[in-house]
Structures are given as structure tokens and as C-alpha cells.
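Kindly review both lines to help learners:
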Amino acid sequence: MLERVRSVVKAGARATRAVCDVGIMHPVRPDRAARLLFPYVRFGPVPATVGAMAALRFPGRTALVDERGALTYAELEERAASLATALRERTGDGRIAVLCRNHRGFVEAVLAASRLGNDVVLLNTDFSSTQLGQVVEREGVELLVHDEEFGAAVEESGFAGARVLAWTDGGAGESIDALVAATEAEPLNPDRTSNVIVMTSGTTGTPKGARHDLSVSSLLPAALSHLMRVPVRSGAPIVIAPPLFHILGFAYTAVGLGMGMPLVLFRRFDPEDVLTAIADCQAETLVAVPVMLQRILDAAKSERRRTPSLRVVICGGSALHPHLSEAFMDEFGDVLINVYGATETGWATIATPEDLRAAPGTVGRPSFRLTIRILDEDGNEVPDGETGEVYTGGGLRFAGYTGGGGKKVRDGLTGTGDLGHFDAEGRLFIDGRADDMIVSGGENVFPGEVENLLGEHPDVAEVTVKGVEDEKFGQRLAAYVVRKEGSQVTEDDLKAHVKKHLARYKVPRDVHFVDELPRTSTGKVRSKALAD
């Protein structure tokens, strides 16, 4: 009992130091401080509350920067309030969907819709018109806020509800800018609390919408873990490169707004633009997926770009291979942090630069008050070093899919679908997806192991590995490789490289050379496109 009390006291002390270190305890004028709780009482634990509280605390501070310039927190709040009043006249109780790239319109639409109490559905900009039609129908979308460039896809999807343009270059249609200019904000007191529905990022089939319990008791442990392990600072600019509709981009949009950080956004990712923005804005934090890190690293090396202001680089969304984390930190310093989680679970573990140097490939240690267990097929916990399925419990609570169904649950813990193991120091490693593992000649083979080995080869720019049918072994691996510029590496060379380091049954049956890997906007390889 005494040991438990000491542990709680130590954790509280660390959290208090972290809160002070990141500058959250910013002095606020007494009249504004007295109003800080009003947004929470009116709207609940939603994005609108985060935006309204930030406007009270940091009214003159820059809230976001995009291709159209900068908005202060006060300006962002005014625009969101006016937009919410305008949208109220165009929708009922149905859901409001957002189909936008990274810019002010996305943020304004989410803040406005959540002020109304309407559920907000974040749509993937990679959706085909067919996928878009299926999702908006299933989710009961009544109003769609979208960029002008997606107009044709919306038309072909069959969506018949109200539409508002978020980003337009002069095309016809009702726009956010026009609505804001023509509408005076009115007080809103919704009788329900908005939910934000994030689509799963699977590369096949119709994506599902994930719902979460966003109560304070659910969010607080995750927030404290972040404060203690990720040294972002209030007021310091943050460049968010992944799509805002993705859980990684959306989570750090909320973090940035809550901490009064200027969000630096781009409609399309370009590594040179990111490096320029970090230098020009003196950005201290960058959020990116691994394939973006690789391209930023290549650009920095080729142009000899320097980013002295950069203190934190947060990576997530897909596997961060050891060769990339090592090379990135060798170039930019020990600033890299790897977060692991999923649309359904939020961030479950955080790996600090010290973790990544000591144990390359790790996704770190569990977040505060979050339980992770590695279980075998019978639900028994496996010893350190042995692989099983990753189950999580506590922290951000998954409340099921909007279309029904959920994840596997054992003893109150939710299955992630990932296979992994702990090392002796309590660090988690992800060995691959359960549905990616193949059995070759009676042996379990994880594509990620071979993928990482080939990624380290000096003549390989990018690679992905997947399972294929094999008459002799049942299944074998196939590799899809992008050569580095000027490289003449052959299939036999790469097979010999794998054979030298791994067992014979792990050598790919085929090596296909391609000009590029087909990827989603979140950096995941489209397996179906490879097969085609």
C-alpha cells in the first residue's frame, strides 16, 4: 500500500513538473479566467471547447498558418462561431462530414460543427466516389463541408444533402468565407454533445467509423503521458504534415490548439516546403508519418538544410524501421519520438529518443494508466521476448464502430490486431499485423522483419514485403522495391542479402522492381494496387 502511494505521489510530481515545463500555466486575465469553464459546460469535451478556451487564454496569439496567411486564436474563434450559426440554418440533427485537406477550413468546420452538438465525420481525401457514397450513407451525413477539388467525387457519390465549400479558388457554390462574412454569431446552447468519428485507415474494403469515450477521465491519463514524455511547449509553432482526418494529425491538432501552439498546415506534403516552414516559422515540433520522415531526410541531406529550432519530431501512423530512426537522428539530433496506437485506441505507447537509441525499432513504454498485455491464441500472457497479440486497456476508450461491431475483447482488454513482444526493459516492439503474418513451410514469418532488412540495403530507396501463395511452402514472401537513383541492384543481390542475415524460408520468392510504391495519403502501402 505504501509503495502504491509513493508511486502515485511520484507520478503526480512528474506531471506537475511537466505542466510547468511546457508553459501551460500561462497567466490569464481574471475576467477571462472566470469564463474558462463556460465552453465546457455549454459544449462538453469536444473540439469547440478546446478552441473557445484557447481564444480566452491566448486571443492575440497565432492559431494557424496556411497558404492564405495567419489567423489568431480570437479570429479563429470568431469565424468558427459565425460558421456554426450559419450551419445551424442548413442542417438538423444529422451528421456533418468534413472532406478537406490540411488548411483553416478543416479546423473551422470541425470547431463549428462541434459547437452545434452535431456529430462530425472526418472523411479520407483518398476515398473514391463509390467509397464516399457508401460512407456518407452509412453515417447519416446531412451536410458535407468539402474542398472544391472534390466536387466531382461528391457528385458521383450520389450525396444529395447540403454542401459548403471549405477551400475554393473562385468556383461556384456556397463557401465558408461567404457564410462567415454574411453571418453574425449567435449564442448556442446545444442539447447534445458532439462526437468526432474518425475513419479507420485500412487499405481495403469500406472504412469503418470509430467512436471514443472522450470523458475527462479517459483523456487525462493520455494527456499526462504526453506531457511527461513529449517536450512540446505552449506557444511554439508545430508543423503537422499528416492529413488532419487521420488520428495522428487530428490528435496533434487538438494538442496544438489546447496548448496555444500555432498550427503550420499545408494542403499537400512537400519535404522542401516543410523544411522551409520550420526555418521561417522557427517551428519547434514536427508531426509526420515514416515515409514523410524519409523524404524530409533525403531533402535535408541533398540541400544541406538546417533546422536549429526543431526540438521534437513526432512519428506515428505506420512502422518506423530502425534504419530510418537512426539515420534521422544522426542528421537532426536526438529529437525523434515514436508513438504507437490506432484509430480505435489512440496512442498506447511512446518511445523517447533514449528508447530509440537503446532499442531501435521499439514503440516505447505504455502510456500512464494504460495496460498492455501480450496474449497467445488461448488468451494467456506470454513471457518477455515471445510474440503474441497486443491487447490494451484503459486510457482512451474505444466505444465501437458506427456501423456496428467492435474489436476482440479479453478480460476487459481490447485487441489491436497487431502482433508484438516486450523486451526485458518493458519496451514494446510490434512484429507485424496478425493478418499479415504468413506460415511458410510450417514456420511463422513476419513481412516487417524482411522489409526492415531490405530497407537497410544501400541500394534500396523504398520497399514493402507481403505474403503470396507458394506451391512448395504454402506461402512465401514477395518484395516490391524502389531502387535508389543510379542503382543497378538485382533480384539475386537482394535475395542473397536476406539469405545472409535470415533463415532460408524468409528469403522472398520474388523481388519486383517498381518506380514507386502506391501509398495512401497517410503513407500506408496499398496492397491491392500492388497485386494489380
